[in-house]
């Protein structure tokens, strides 16, 4: 952003800009769409599918979404299927709960539980709906750069500049958490009694440890050590967030009126985005109509 919003953020990062890229001109088809439109479509999909309780149209929609994610999103099928595992667990629980709690014709009796045909059909539709939402969410996360998404939300979605910058900084902090956790754990192990150096060589024998060989360090796995590391990580993250907030306030991010504020990479909604919304939402509405047909 220009003016009081311009310049680099903490650590020289372009917090107010678009991250690594502006509008992508290469890559998969979905990566060239506006991120705010992609997010809106992903949020709208489960809302449109709420009336659908027939599993057959939802199954067709899930297969179409999987093919679209591979062709238009550039995702590999094995990776996409692995990303479906968390959604599969939730979908299975939804199927089981509906199968034994809804009234209908008896299909099977498992102990005190009665499985009904209506419950199975409704549960299968809800489970497949979960998988459809999972495919859409995983595809969006795979093709959208967070910097472009926040810039698009600011320009297209009219998200305030203060919220945009705060979300970008929070994203950067979350990205650094795994490395910070590893650093805290290594420091904790080096200070504890679990550091083991190679035994000194006996008189007349050669040492097995080279001059540059590091000590053997075992990370403490007890609850107290893990809790202490988590507290240290929390304190470090809070201090870093406080410093970033002071820097952003000092540099005047978000101080300019919206009409005077500019962005490094402009975000625009084009025909490609309109086609995406029409195709996806049209497919969802078609599935709903097919499920409600007699």
UniProtKB/TrEMBL annotation:
Intracellular or extracellular location(s): Membrane
Enumerate the transmembrane spans. 36-53, 59-78, 121-144, 274-293
Q: Which Pfam families match?
A: CbiQ (PF02361)
Instruction: List GO terms (cellular component aspect).
Output: plasma membrane
Q: Does the keyword DNA repair apply?
A: no
Q: What keywords appear on the UniProt entry? A: Cell membrane, Membrane, Transmembrane, Transmembrane helix
Major location (coarse): membrane
Query: How is the protein disposed in the membrane?
Result: Multi-pass membrane protein
Entry annotated with the keyword Ribosomal protein: no
Q: Which InterPro entries match?
A: ABC/ECF_trnsptr_transmembrane, ECF_transporter_component
Q: What protein name is recorded for this chain? A: Cobalt transport protein
Give the originating organism: Cellulomonas carbonis T26
